[in-house]
Task: structure prediction
Amino acid sequence: MDLGIEGKWALVCGASKGLGFGCAQALVREGVNLVLNARTPEALHAAAAQLIAYGADAAGPRGASATQPQVLAVAADITTPEGRAAVFNVAGGPGQGFDIVVSNAGGPPPGDFRDWDRAAWLRAVDANMLTPIELMRATVDGMAARGFGRIVNITSGAVKAPIDILGLSNGARSGLTGFAAGLARSAIAARGVTINNLLPGKFDTDRLAATLGAAAARSGKGIEEVRRAQQAGIPAGRFGQPQEFGAICAFLCSVQAGYITGQNILADGGAYPGTF
Result:
């Protein structure tokens, strides 16, 4: 399926690895120009090199007229005004004229809420709620003026089924979910701009490894034992892969997904037990 987004510009945050990289890979396959953001320069530039090579390989299958997409990397802390300025002012980029924004921040650390002070909560809210809102504030009006825009916020399956040791994430991401629901249904909806949240369950990433480690430490069991037990609790019988997560993200960014907005799309292998 041609997703109809070749030549558009996307900002993908947390793009050096894991789910962010999976989303970037799926978009570059469709011929989307990328501005990649993450904090660690070495990992980010390595990811950019992989995506440039992948984009070159994908250009052939898209047809003789396909062009290789641009891939720009900005190593900066997107949670700060300086980091956002660096992304929007990168040489050769679209400025604030992004057609697609994939917001993605590493989740706050797991733990016991009794140990989290006000500063810990503010860091969580800043990274997982306020920063995506700032990215939307900077881009949605331009998207609406051009008649096309896609915002995909990578949140967490914990928004629907909270996890006790992820209280910081439960709270901050739920705040973003509420805000996005309101904005998605505002006047921008009639001007070609969609806003959706993509909720990962257990995907095989560094974040999952940290969560498994915390669960193992709490239970006194080995990490591999905890890993097998958690996989057994997923109807699909496995953890997800970043590439399949990225494919869902790319579809939400497509022209075909223009009638999907304000939704929370859960990708968890069937783990969520509810009907709705």
Remarks:
- The radius of gyration is 18 Å.
- The helical segments are 18-29, 41-59, 81-88, 118-146, 167-184, 206-219, 223-232, 242-252.
